User: Which sequence fits this backbone?
């Protein structure tokens, strides 16, 4: 149990997960004042398994988990996290990024859990995608309970809530109708019968309903059929379904994308009609791909979890998700290095500020589950990338030779996190940095200054303090009339490394070695790196 002082600190914490957790705490306090006991708090996150799980799905579960972690600091009431799969939805179109598309087209309209698995590994398409979801949530160590919509409907768990919707049929329908076009309004019903003959989820007019019997009557292809609304014989349309789920499970908190704000508002009205209390919510901004388009699990654009983790550690992905959930962010390969180094900066800050008040404001506390590791990182990811570039190294042992000279005592055994970064840097450089390198010739002014820098670096060959080297670089830039100084550093990187920017050059030279950096600059000034040069 958190101490009183610790709880007071948590109550004042400004990090966004604490802001969200305080909303849940206020909800609980309102219910307690009204005399309604609460044994547990339910956090929920939803997943539409018509396409493969993608990085946005991970982000939603991660963010909800951090709110739950913050809530734990505010209250002793147990909190559960449910990962809910809408796998009873009828398949409306075949995703672009799955095999056996012709086979899937034959099953359009059926629940995902009634369609054969196009990958041939599970009992259904829904089961396959649910397994993929759980596999990558498990990979990150999330604590959650998995719920399947199909199971909830067919087991009877949703029966009483579905009957409540039937009991308020007209009220629920009339909330949704104004949001629909004229054609859709004419046939809309909250209920979607599952056809006993074809197994398809039918979007057909409901021509009668019987609250006492718990049934609806529909007409399809000239046949009039009466089916119970319970036991999975019907499912609900999306907005009514979401509200029913909140009502049935007693969901206290759920976040969703900004594009679903109208659905949240409608589902909130419906759950109140049913006599329930809508959950606390957060609307987060959407992720964008390289072209600024919304990422989509059906199109498979943007980055997958596996693609990110080929070039950066899990913590860097989690950090990307943590930062500013209400701001739209591009999700492409070029964001990985910055995410890695920004995360490492917060790791260093956490080590410096060993107190609860600072911890609760630091993303590292959330990402590492409240118990961050003590490892330090003597080199940033950007430095490692430039080290690979300058040294031409293609194997981690060569890079570790430079690192040991820069940080005596460091090794793969003592710094396993840094060793992972070395591997990521080698791969990222080969795939993304190397193909984009463009060297240019120095101007007369730049050539004179760079030659002076090479001489200075050669004279301080044993210097391993990056700040000392950086000061020398500054002075040479100033003495050669570079104003602003960023033009000087831009020249260094474009001429010597074939790129427009990089980390602090003094830190790079200290890591690579001042003498080695002097040789690199002189080689660049000789024109050896320019297109067409014979090296």
Assistant:
């Amino acid at each position: 149990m958190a101490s009183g002082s610790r709880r007071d600190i948590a109550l004042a914490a400004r990090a966004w997960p604490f802001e969200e957790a305080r909303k849940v705490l206020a909800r609980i306090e309102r219910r307690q004042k009204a005399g309604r006991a609460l044994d547990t708090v339910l956090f929920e996150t939803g997943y539409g398994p018509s396409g493969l799980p993608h990085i946005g799905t991970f982000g939603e579960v991660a963010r909800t988990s951090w709110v739950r972690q913050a809530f734990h600091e505010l209250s002793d009431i147990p909190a559960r996290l449910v990962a809910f799969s809408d796998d009873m939805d009828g398949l409306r179109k075949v995703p672009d990024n799955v095999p056996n598309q012709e086979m899937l087209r034959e099953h359009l309209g059926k629940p995902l859990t009634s369609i054969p698995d196009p990958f041939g590994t599970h009992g259904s398409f829904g089961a396959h995608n649910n397994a993929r979801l759980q596999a990558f949530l498990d990979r990150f160590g999330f604590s959650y309970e998995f719920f399947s919509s199909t199971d909830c409907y067919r087991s009877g768990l949703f029966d009483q809530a579905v009957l409540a919707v039937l009991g308020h049929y007209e009220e629920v329908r009339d909330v949704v109708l104004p949001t629909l076009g004229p054609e859709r309004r004419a046939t809309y019903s909250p209920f979607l019968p599952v056809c006993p003959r074809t197994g398809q989820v039918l979007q057909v007019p409901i021509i009668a309903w019987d609250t006492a019997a718990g049934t609806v009557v529909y007409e399809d292809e000239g046949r009039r059929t009466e089916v119970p609304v319970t036991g999975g014989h019907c499912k609900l349309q999306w907005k009514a379904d979401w509200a029913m789920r909140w009502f049935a499970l007693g969901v206290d908190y759920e976040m969703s994308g900004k594009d679903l704000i109208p659905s949240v508002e409608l589902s909130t009205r419906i759950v109140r009609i049913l006599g329930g209390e809508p959950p606390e919510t957060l609307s987060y901004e959407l992720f964008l791909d390289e072209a600024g388009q919304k990422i989509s699990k059906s199109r498979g654009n943007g980055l997958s979890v596996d693609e990110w983790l080929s070039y950066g550690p899990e913590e860097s992905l989690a950090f990307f998700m943590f930062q500013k959930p209400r701001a739209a962010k591009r999700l492409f390969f070029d964001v990985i290095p910055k995410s890695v180094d920004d995360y490492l900066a917060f790791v260093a800050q956490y080590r410096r500020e060993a107190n609860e008040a600072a911890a609760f404001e630091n993303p590292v506390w959330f990402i590492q589950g409240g118990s961050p590791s003590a490892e330090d990182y003597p080199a940033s990811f950007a430095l490692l990338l430039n080290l690979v570039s300058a040294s031409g190294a293609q194997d981690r042992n060569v890079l570790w030779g430079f690192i040991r000279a820069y940080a005596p005592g460091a090794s793969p055994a003592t710094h396993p996190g840094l060793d992972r970064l070395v591997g990521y840097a080698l791969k990222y450089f080969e795939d993304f940095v190397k193909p984009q390198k463009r060297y240019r010739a120095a101007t007369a002014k730049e050539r004179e200054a760079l030659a002076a820098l090479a001489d200075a670096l050669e004279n301080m060959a044993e210097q391993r303090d990056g700040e000392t080297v950086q000061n020398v670089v500054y002075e040479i830039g100033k003495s050669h009339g570079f104003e602003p100084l960023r033009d000087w550093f831009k020249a260094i990187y474009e001429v010597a490394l074939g790129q427009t920017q990089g980390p602090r050059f003094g830190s790079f030279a200290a890591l690579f070695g001042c003498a080695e950096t002097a040789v690199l600059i002189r080689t660049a000034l000789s024109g050896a790196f320019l297109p067409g040069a014979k090296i």
